[in-house]
Amino acid sequence: MRGWKPAPHVLLLLPAFIVLAAVVVVPLLLSLYSSFTPFRLTRPDSIYTFIGFRNYERILTDKDFWIAFGRTVLLLTFALNLEMVLGLVLALLVEKATRGQRILRTIMMFPMMFSPVLVGFQFKFMFNDNIGIVNNALQSLGLTDQAIPWLIDGQLAFIAILVAEIWSSTAVFAIFILAGLMAMPREPLEAAKVDGCTPLQSFRYVTWPFVMPFAFIAMTIRSLDIARAYDIVKIMTDGGPAGRTEILWTMIARTAYSDARMGLANAMSYIAILLSILFTAMFFRQLAKARQQIGAEW
Amino acid sequence: MDENSAHRLKRGLLKAGHLIGLFLAMAIICLPGLWIVLSSLRPTVEIMAKPPVWIPNELSFDAYVAMFSGVGQGGIPVLEYFRNSVIISVTSTVIALAVGMAGGYAFARYRFRGKSAIFLGFMLTRTVPGIALSLPLFFVYARLGIIDTHFGMILAYVALNVPFTVWLIDGFFRQVPRDLAEAAQIDGCTRWQAFWQVEFPLARPGIASAGIFAFLISWNEFALASQLTRSTNSKTLPVGLLDYTAEFTIDWRGMCALAVVMIIPALTLTFIVQKHLVSGLTSGAVKG
Amino acid sequence: MNKLLAGVSAGVLALVAGNAALAQDLPGKFDGVTIDAKLIGGQQYENLYSRIAEWEAATGAKVNVISKKNHFDLDKEIKSDIAVGAVNWCVGSNHSSFAPQYPGIYTDLNALLPADEIGAYVDANIAASTLDGKLVLLPRAQFDVSAMYYQKSLYADEDNKARFKEAYGYDLTPPDTLQQWSDQAKFFSNPPDFYGTQYAGKEEAINGRFYEILRAEGGEYLDADGRPAFNSEAGVRALSWFVDLYNAKAVPAGTTNYLWDDLGQGFASGTIALNLDWPGWAGFFNDPGASKVAGDVGVVAPPKGSSGARTGWSGHHGFSVTENCANKDAAASLVWFLTNEDSQKLEAAAGPLPTRDAVWEWVISEAEGDAYRQEVLKAFQEAANGAYPVPQSPSWIEISNAVYPKLQAAILGDMTAQEALDEAAAEATEILEDAGEL
User: Fold this and answer.
1) Distance between CA atoms of residues B227 and B133, nearest Å
2) Does B105 reach chain A within 8 Å, measured CB to CB?
3) Residue C20 has what pLDDT?
4) Alpha-carbon distance B31 to nearest alpha carbon in chain C (angstroms)
């Protein structure tokens, strides 16, 4: 009787397997196949033509693609690191507050409630060079008499996108780091104080190592769904002007639907997926290391 | 005495500095959001003005009145969208939690081959950009005939959230000492009873925190929803935002008003759950 | 003469098709029929759909709206349907700029509707709706062509008049040519507080503007063989017009990132003197609750280029019937009903431009006593006379996506106009070759 009954962990994992297979794996195999065809949405028959690695060859030799690739890595790196630092600062500020924790924590998560579409429009209007409030504020404060072309200059546009992205996602880091701070045992900190450590030192040697794993969890989660940034970039600049803010996702989306060249776009997606896997695996390893440091079992 | 007052002064300064820093941080977080709220209440002429109008001259609920006044009178089917959003987000969150609990429990309590590979595999399904998924998913859904249904959306969101809930909940179950459940079993509980009466209550904060994340993600998701929904049968609020855009024009004030309608439930829920959220993450995710 | 021709062709068609639908009176009777429809959604478009109930009552059929989405998402959805072979619905919203991308899925409405009915629409709109001789969509009263909005007070100001005359040697009146537009934009500009004009700077928007200025300058986008020909002398002239305004700081520095929403908000903020824009904004600009320039808005026909032709990039929304539809007659009747005189009056009363001759007359007579509305209609009617659709290539949007970054690069000074256009033409040629159109 027991011999053929599946093990309990198989049963328990089965629902997760089924859901992920149906919604992620099967479609993914389909799109893997189509990346070897010249599939165009408007010509369904083209999915039956097999062209081998032509799409991949085309992408890998395309300068614009690699520039977008590099920019995406840069954006990820900047965004994730800045979000971590700001999240840390925010968490420290909130943790120190003696009153109003409930309200403060809720406000801290406020940006997470906004749909990325809306964030995109909001920041596009704010950074509008002519009527946006950023330039208007700078001008009425007398800090500049120029209309700063926020979304035009390559670097400024990068910064503007970064600001929008950071605003909308720092909360994820803050909440995790805050959780870490609150879980921290008091004794080591007090011991450090007795030993005459400055606040900065005790932060560096006591608090930070403890909080780090939390920061890495947040980082892993964020690197997983950073493609959310797509909605924001799409609305703010759509990769423009003149390709100055093009990132992988805007490029893929345009190729896939607007140009209707799904096969080519899927080949690009696969390269983008490799990138995300790389980022995720990296954080995962760091997380494991950090966990060991604080003596958690893994 | 002198040293004491210098010390006190220093403390006072530190405290003031902290308060100012806190205030500034909260202001930066709130301003873009509050600007959206404000934009929904004031006439468009003041929103994009130059020189800027900082203090609104008049506030009105016109945009909200218009939103609810029915299709054709400047309204959008906001009640239907709201209903769809609630049904889809809540159901998918609950299912994702159930699936996540089962999976998390398996990872935490059983030893089996390829465990970490499977675990990493789960996580990696999350790295697939929505855009790579949307057409093939559409293809599968079209064949199954579940385009534009609640079921289809719920299924997609469950898949979106399962890796995350499995991960968090796994951590929490690890943290609940094995002996507790074993003791309960010795006392005559079945494993099932031991789970519900001993392990589940202890892991509740973790489940709450996974839940709020899953809920917020489903509530705001746009890329998949815009592909898989079509009509008031299943269109959700984030997709509904685009009802305020026409080919050449945009009703920014209306969009802001709808955004406020979207935020209120999310904010309320977060406010209620946030206590669990923080304490939950604390004990679960890392120590696990 | 027109009537006569229409009558004759109706007769011919009736003979050829021998179709029952031609003989019967519209909207007809279709008891028990259900029509699945995909309609464009959004505030501006949905008022019309209240008429569907009337059609259902008149014909006994039912309409099942299976999708209601914004323009671009609907386009994505239809392409997805084509891709997975799921075009199993009857009526779809369509647009003259997008229609060429959906080859073969929509049926020829000429065969389903009497020719004298089709003759009642504006000829140019019908021409823009016809692909390879097939009438693939019936235009609704959502016709878009641009006209020039301007701030009236600037032109009434005596000091401005005198200074302008001295600097440019001719009287200051609202611009009638591209040259005047450019001169006046530079004259009025006072960055960063005030700009002479602005233009849409990305995606299909700037490509469309470039296309119409190119045509006004006597150039062509695709030549008779369908080959990209915009890197001509006229092309360089057209692109240089954009570059020159940008360099002179007569447009906001952000203009290459502007889309229609930014443009509309910009003009409404009172910081832009001249704005070539769509009819959808006419009400918004003159509404004191929405716009600073309300009461001070003038509208004239779009400017002429050196060829003497006015700019006239245009497009219109409409409805199509699919080839797969089981009840094409009923579907055609619905499409006709949603674009008939009463339907168009309903839509046009709210501001959008009609596509039937009779409704044009009606809106103009309705505007009696409303000077602003009359001015708007006069300007747009003149614009409509010279209007034309985008090149009817299925690859138009794809070409746009390849061309616009190059246009931006030239405007921002990354390359010269000639280089930009040559590169763009090479890419466009490659796209057309890949698509098998060349």
Assistant:
1) 10
2) yes
3) 43
4) 21
Cα A243 to Cα C262: distance, rounded to the nearest angstrom: 20
Average pLDDT, chain C: 89
Distances B276 to A180, A235, B101, B233 between C-alpha atoms, Å: 14, 35, 17, 34
For C93-124, the pLDDT digits (tens) are 999 988 998 878 999 999 999 999 999 999 99
Of B239, B204, B205, nearest in space to B219 by CA: B239
Is A227 within 8 Å of B130 when comparing Cβ atoms?
yes
Determine the 3-state secondary structure of C132 from DSSP: coil
Asked if pLDDT for residue A138 goes beyond 60, the answer is yes
Domains parsed from chain B with CATH numbers: 2-66 (no CATH), 70-284 (1.10.3720.10)
Domains in chain C with CATH codes: 2-144+315-381 (3.40.190.10), 147-311+393-434 (3.40.190.10)
Q: Domains in chain A, start-ordered, CATH in brackets?
A: 60-293 (1.10.3720.10)
Question: Which residue among A27, A94, A221 places its CB closest to the CB of B164?
Answer: A221
Do residues C415 and C409 touch, judged by C-beta distance below 8 A?
yes
- 10 Å CB burial of residue C341 (0-12, 13-18, 19+) is middle
Cross-chain CB nearest to B30 (options A9, A34, A110): A110
Q: Looking at A260-264, B89-93, C123-127, C372-376, which range is the least confident one?
A: A260-264
pTM: 0.83
How many helices (H) and strands (E) would you count in chain A?
14, 0
All residues at 6 or more sequence positions from B283 whose CB lies less than 8 Å from its CB, including other chains: A183, B172, B175, B205, B206
Each residue's pLDDT tens digit, B23-43: 888 888 888 888 888 888 888
Contact criterion met (CB below 8 Å) for B133 and A24: yes
Query: Which of B32, B216, B279 is the closest to A112 by Cβ?
Result: B216
> For an interface test with C, which of B249, B252, B256 has the most C Cβ atoms less than 10 Å from its Cβ?
B249
**pLDDT the model gives residue C22:** 45
